[in-house]
Amino acid sequence: MKRVVNKEIFGWAMFDFANQAYTLLIITVVFGDLFTRVIVGNAQRDYRLGNLLWSVALAVSYLAVVIAGPVCGAIMDFSAARKRFLLASYLLTVVSTAMLYFVAPGYVALGMVLIVVSNFGYAIGESFIASFLPELGPPESLGWISGFGWALGYVGGLVSTAFALLFLGEVSAENFHNVRWVGPFASAFFLVAAVPTFLWLRERGRPRRLARPAGYLMMGIWRVRATVLAAGAHRDLACLLGSVFFAMAGIYIVISFTFIYGAQVVQWDERIRVAMFVVVQLTAAAGALGFGFFQDRLGAKRTYQATLLLWVLAILLIYATPGIAERLGARYGWRVEAQHVFLAVGCVAGMCLGGTQSAGRTLVGLFAPKLKAAEFFGFWGLSGKAAAIFGLLGIGLLQAWVGLHTAILLCMLLFALALLVALPVDEARGRAAAAAPPARRPPNPDYS
User: Fold this and answer.
1) Which of 108, 322, 425, 448 sits between 20 and 30 A of 171, alpha carbons compared?
2) CA 402 to chain centre
3) 101-143 confidence digits (pLDDT tens)
4) Residue 448 in this model has a pLDDT that exceeds 50
5) 3-class SS at 71?
């Protein structure tokens, strides 16, 4: 492998910087809240229908990623076309996100369709960009590189969302004429900030060609099938992906419902909403860098498990937020509001947010053979997006039954399961399997 220069690592990390504008402005902070309370809305202020439709739209987009991700990864490995696939997903996200401007109150179907399309482009692009990670440095440096990417991503989220909140204002029906610009703004930020990625990130590998374009699809399916049949040689990766499934189910609920929870359950004001955004971004960036440092010294598996333990604590505190505020007030006579307790708990959740995703991505990078990195990261994307479907539909249906406050406990169960499933993972054995010579494949079918 040719030497990787710092400029290329920075270009790779800039994609994380750029796409966080989509994650935060569209999924977490602004448009999700706008969709549930204004686009769908309800005169009785019962937003359970809006929450459920939001969950369904996101779940459908992740289902599309589950179907397409591994096959696209196999095709990219075969044809050395990762940058072209990444460019296609990026342009799809940019165009469909800009079109969210046209989603007005009552235009529920249009809003759901555009979220499905834009989130599909964003989510599958996460797998595409992650597949470059194993080539960016030696195994002992991947934790730091992955953490740097996540940290830079949260800085990008801080910059883009702070600017948007300053100029767009609060999410409300009265302010809709301003806040509807969130889609075009997120689109423009992503469009411009990701340019260094396509300038500096290099495509490696020997491109191979097939006579017929339709043959690529059959070849991708065949390669995925062969990898699944050989899964026994990568049992630690398979076990890790099972853990990632439960962890990402919880994380996708947190990402998609934190600000909805704050508005509906904690009933925060605009000042605390903005403060929560800033706190989560700063602590998430610190968590990604800090846990990235520990990954390369203590091991990625131990770091990953530590973040899962912190997640269990964080969700328990989120659920207990209203009760904690009441008990502090009754015991000490303090004037403590639930929104202030929720803000403090956000520090714990923020640190976990960056650390868990960074450590999980690092482990996949360590366990994936370099010649099949895109295909294996396609399975990583499949696991995460299947988790999103499970988690978002689960929370959507559960909150329709018991309310969002109680339903949030589902996340605590998911993180505990992720911790349990990760116990058998052996990091040294997984790395050895990645470095082993590839098993012989059966003869290629004729795709010509």
Assistant:
1) 322
2) 26
3) 999 999 999 999 999 999 999 999 988 898 888 788 777 777 7
4) no
5) helix
Give Dmax over CA atoms of the chain in angstroms. 78
Which of 49-53, 189-193, 349-353, 443-447 shows the lowest mean pLDDT across its residues?
443-447
In 3D space, the residue among 357, 359, 379, 384 whose CA is nearest the CA of residue 368 turns out to be 379
Give the separation between CA 49 and CA 397, rounded to whole angstroms: 10
Q: What angle do CA 296, 298, 299 make, to 5 degrees?
A: 65
Calculate ∠ Cα 164-168-169, nearest 5°.
Answer: 110
* Cβ count within 10 A of residue 5: 11
Tell me how many degrees the CA angle 220-203-296 measures, rounded to the nearest 5.
95
Is-contact 244 357, C-beta < 8 A? no
Question: Residue 343: what pLDDT?
Answer: 80
Give phi and psi for 372, each to the nearest 5. -130, 30
Helix and strand numbers, DSSP H then E, in the chain: 18, 0
Query: Which residue carries 């440095």 as its tokens?
Result: 137
Q: DSSP labels for 19-59?
A: HHHHIIIIIIISHHHHIIIIII--TT---HHHHHHHHHHHH
Mean pLDDT of the region 259-268? 80
Phi-psi region of 426 (alpha: psi -120 to 50; beta: other; left: phi over 0): beta
Domains and CATH numbers, the chain: 6-203+213-435 (1.20.1250.20)
Q: Phi and psi dihedrals of 444, rounded to 5?
A: -65, 135
The pLDDT-based confidence of 352 (bands split at 50, 70, 90) is: confident
Start-to-end CA distance of the chain, whole Å, equals: 31
CB atoms within 10 A of CB 87: 16
> Residue 311 in contact with residue 415, Cβ under 8 Å?
yes
CB-count burial class (<10 Å; 0-12, 13-18, 19+) for 440: exposed
Say which amino acid occupies 258.
Answer: T
**What is the C-alpha to C-alpha distance for residues 15 and 11, in angstroms, rounded to an integer?**
7
The C-alpha atoms of residue 370 and residue 379 are separated, in whole angstroms, by 14
pLDDT at 77: 72
* pLDDT at residue 4 greater than cutoff 70: no
Measured N-to-C along each axis, helices 82-98 and 108-130 cross at an angle, to the nearest 10 degrees, of 160
Query: Please, what is the average pLDDT of the chain?
Result: 82
Q: Are 325 and 336 in contact (CB under 8 A)?
A: yes
97 vs 186: CA distance, rounded Å: 7
